[in-house]
Design brief:
By secondary structure, this protein is of the alpha/beta class. It is built from three helices and seven strands. It is found in: Cell membrane.
Amino acid sequence: MRFTKPQLRNSSDDALIPLINVVFLMLIFFMIAGQIRPPEALSIDPPNSRQGRLIAPERILLLMDGQGRVALDGKVVPASLLGERLAAKLATVRETSDQDGAKTDIGITLKADAAVTQGQLRALLDQLRALGVERLRVLSQQAAN
């Protein structure tokens, strides 16, 4: 009895397997290395600081760009409506903190561009003071040594 060797089919699919593996590895890499959070409403380059420490941001984050535009909750807010929207946001945060039983002062984190003028910042601070904000954190980036 004579056995014949089975002939191996030359499949073009065999050449695609390494390519598929590489594509899936690249997909996993970009999913892990990519940013998950949405982009900020305003393009901001915060000022540099040689001192400071890492802190968790407050529940309310304000963004202020070099032209003095302010964003709250990821949306640019006109200056005429800023006080009203901030008051509503502060009331909402106070209600949720009262329900949690945590009696803490509500603070705001401000991420301002380095090009913001003193006058623009002063106007915003006056609005915050009028709304009863007692604690404000200003974010900066670590300066290169």
